What does this fold into?
Amino acid sequence: MSRHLALDGAQAVAEAMRQINPDVVAAYPITPQTEIVQKFSTFVADGLVDTEFITVESEHSAMSACVGAAAAGARVMTATSSAGLALMWEILYVAASNRLPIVMPVVNRALSAPINIHCDHSDSMGARDAGWIQLFSETAQEAYDNAIQAPRIAEHPDVLLPVMVCQDGFITSHGLERIDALEDDQVRQFVGTLQPHMPLLDLEHPVTYGPLDFYDYYFEHKRQQVEAMRHAGPVILAVAEEFARLSGRQYGYFEPYRLDDAEVAVVVLNSTAGTARVVVDRLRKEGIKAGVLKLRVFRPFPVQELAEALRHVRVVGVMDRSDSFGAMGGPVFIETCAAFYTQRHPALVKNFVYGLGGRDTTPDQIEAAFRDLVQIGETGQIGELVTYLGVR
It folds into this structure.
């Protein structure tokens, strides 16, 4: 059973938060995320949730409050973008290292300088090694669905890691769509009741959070985080399978499109995947066997599964909406190359950096990328490893 709602991506996430009814939300407004916490604050004011909403003076304080509340045993959520996420940097690591299952929608926005309020993925990609699970959302519907699945993933006893639910700023967050929303009781039953792990408020079993941790145990604690990320992969799939039975919507590590017989394909995140599918359909009419792999789970990166899904593809283009300055390409490209190398995948791989600072990426630009891949397949020569689509 579902309800059809007209919501943008930010409102859809706020609606999911209302249905989850977290114990604590500590947040600070920042464009283009503001609408999430603004909308949710109206739910608090109207008595539609039991949430303690904490207004703070900065995003650093927001995540600090979330850490304290989660350590106490509360179900906790927040939301941010861009410089707000960057201001949380120190506490992102604290949240993950203390194994606190905080859920944070991130509305992707470029980082300064120069100041820019529009979409690219430099914010969440900058935090990719902070120890957070990262889910990416192509549409408002997927942002809603990911937000509902996130607490189940984060709170699983084999995981206990925080989760970012990412969507593209303005493109998705402010674009109105039809949302098939679940009923409130369905969401409450799916999410369930939090069973806190070693909460500070359990006076019968006292624990310490954040002690000094030198070379005697720090290494072991980091190794435990690695293991938690390994456990997260199967948990993400199991939660997605249960969600599919409830909603009829299927999710995995990624979503392939016309990939079965593809000879050239692109790997892409978030909203640009829809544009890429249109281009694939256009090229297929010309007889070009093109395909798309839309990556949903970036952390933990699905090394074996991604390499296997693209095993038969001769030439792969990886599209990055952020760059890694001084590296050999963007973050998704580097991860994909590493996956191919470790899994002995023989494909030729090229990087396309696009859409920085919210610049439009058109079907013609993506078609040009595909035609570049076709030429690489014919000549065996990659040429420039990184192409910047649409740059002047």
About this structure: Residues 218-247 form the longest helix (30 residues). The mean pLDDT is 97. Residues 19 and 184 are 5 Å apart (CA to CA).
